[in-house]
Structures are given as C-alpha cells and as structure tokens.
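Pilot study result, target chain (386 residues):
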Amino acid sequence: MALAPKVNQTSVDTAADPEASADTANRTALDDGASTSADSGAADDSSPAARSPMTLAQAVNQTLGELLARDSDVLVFGEDVGRKGGVYGVTKGLQRRFGARRVFDTLLDEQSVLGTALGAGLAGFVPVPEIQYLAYVHNALDQIRGEAASLQFFSGGRYRNPMVVRIASYAYQRGFGGHFHNDNSVAALRDIPGLVIASPARADDAAAMLRTCVSAARVDGRVCVYLEPIALYHTRDLYESGDDAWLAEPSTEPVDIGRARIHGSGTDLLIVTFGNGVPMSLRAAHRLSEKGIHTRVLDLRWLAPLPVEDLLTHARTTGRVLIADETRRTGGVSESLCATLVDAGFTGPLARVTSEDTFVPLGPATAAVLLDETSIETAATKLIAG
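Predicted structure:
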C-alpha cells in the first residue's frame, strides 16, 4: 500500500546563518521544471514595482494572481473570496482578472467548500479553497482527515486529492474576535498522516511557501494546509511605528517543505517559534541583546513536517532552547518540539511559553490567555540565569 509521496527537503534559508552558508549552493527547490521556467518569465515578475516590499496579505494576493496566470488548472474559491475579495482583502481583484469560473464564491458551508475541492482535485484541477477562519475548519475536518489526506493511501496510490487549503488563522485580532475568529488550535490538523502544514509569518515566506504548496499538490498530489496569520496580514512595522521592517519582497521561488528560517546568529539562546510568535520573539530578542543576552530566532515555517534537522542544528549550537508557542499548552506545537529535542538526546536547558488551555475570550481578556512578548523575555532571562 502506497505511503505519502516523498517531497524534497534538502535546503534551508541561510540568509542570516553563516554556519550553514556553505550548503546554499546545494539547495534544491521543490517545483516542477516547466513551472519554474514559466514563472521566471511572467510579466508580473519582471516588474520592479511588483517586487517592492509588501505585507503578507499583499504577497499572498500577488502570488495567487501569478499562479492563476501561470497555471490554467488552479482554482481559487471559498466564502466571499470572489466579488468581495475576502474578509481581509487577500483575494481582492482576482475574480475580475481571471473570471468567475476560476475564482468564485461558495456556499457559507465549510463542508461544501472542502467537498468542492475534493471533486476538483479528482477532476485534474489544483484547488486552492479558503476557509474563512481556523475555528470554522473543525466542523468540516473529516473532508481532510477521512477523505483528501487518506485517498492515496487507501487507493494504493491510484487516486489523489491535491489541494492547498488556505485558512485565516490564529488570534491577536484587535477589536474583533472571540473564539470563532481567533482560534489558536492546530492539534486536530497536526496528527493527520501526510498532511503538509505551512505557517508563514512574513511576505517573502508567504509567497515562497504558497508556491511550494501548489507545486507539491500538482506534482505529488499532496494535501496542504496553509495557515495565514490574520494579525500579520497587514502588519508593516516590527520594532517601532513607521519602520516598515516587517515588509518584504515576495519571493518568486519556492522553498523546501520542512525547512526553517533562522534570524540572527546569537549563541546564548535559541528561541523557536512560528506565526505571530516570530515578530514577538524578534522584539524580545532585541531587548535581550540590550541586557547582553544574544539570541537567534528559529521560525519553523512548517508545522508538519517539522524542520527537525534545523531545530537540532541550532539547538546544539546555542545549548539552550526556549519555545514560544502561540497555540495552547496542551496539544500545542511545543509538545512535539520538546519531544523531538529529548528524543534526539538534547540535554541543555529547555523551556516553553505558550498560550493558556482555554478558548480565546473577547476584548482585553485575551491578554490574560495568549502568548505575549513579556512572557518570552521573562522566560528567556530565567533560562539564561539557570
């Protein structure tokens, strides 16, 4: 019986990692050759203005447009993604450019959205359905768990349901929310065998990882879940208002599944995080540096498969690891990371800070239950002090 197909996992982003720079020449990107060639010659890619620094939402929108223009088999659909352009404007203008046959609105029913993706995948398309909020996917999860992700396995590789499920995810929305619009649980997704889970935090990774997921779906029939941090959709600044330090140029190349991005080269402590935790950890690391504590921040990027090789490399380099996990303490990503380190024989100081085991409440009460920068900085200082 066929298992999940293998995906190239040989490269790591080493822009801020001098120790790994020698390996960059051997990097192998996941993409089919024809797609790479066609993509590099696309009109949008050749425009300097199109490659200017932008937000995560803008990068997703631009990349979806380029993929729709490049590949006639790509379909984008979901609740309000067509005429309205999505709740957060991420698909704005795509229906006007590519027509209602390729970018279309669906019923307000997640089972129908994912059921449409199942049929489209079997018909030879590469469906990119959108689930409006992370909490909304749970009532339709069996369409992924029991159908899409299992079809290749139970058919001995004869059939497949390729798809890239985009989900507006996580918490930290201001002035809007409660649990159903600020869900921070991914546990029900992470234990599905073969499911690829992408979690970009910045525009450059958002573009590259979306390209990777679409290629993995087309080439290997993979089922990918692409978690888009709502609170980072339109974020521009990192350290102070107006610095535009969280903008980035969207990549025109894919990145390999299961490889992390490293920020910094400090040797005192490794902070492991993802999603909203990345800018929070970078700000905490900046303040720690003023105290003489030099850290590096590992952005996991992929929650399944986890970037185990990169995690172990940087954990052993620093000798101390702090995991900053915006999901819940029980069943969250940090549990798997701790287990991975222990199983690999890591014996250095290890700690984790997470969100609480609760649903996300309304209003200011969110500050009492969600991971924050102060918690990261406090835990890091305590870990260094021993």
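One observation from the pilot: The first strand starts at residue 74 and ends at 78. A full batch analysis is planned for the follow-on phase.
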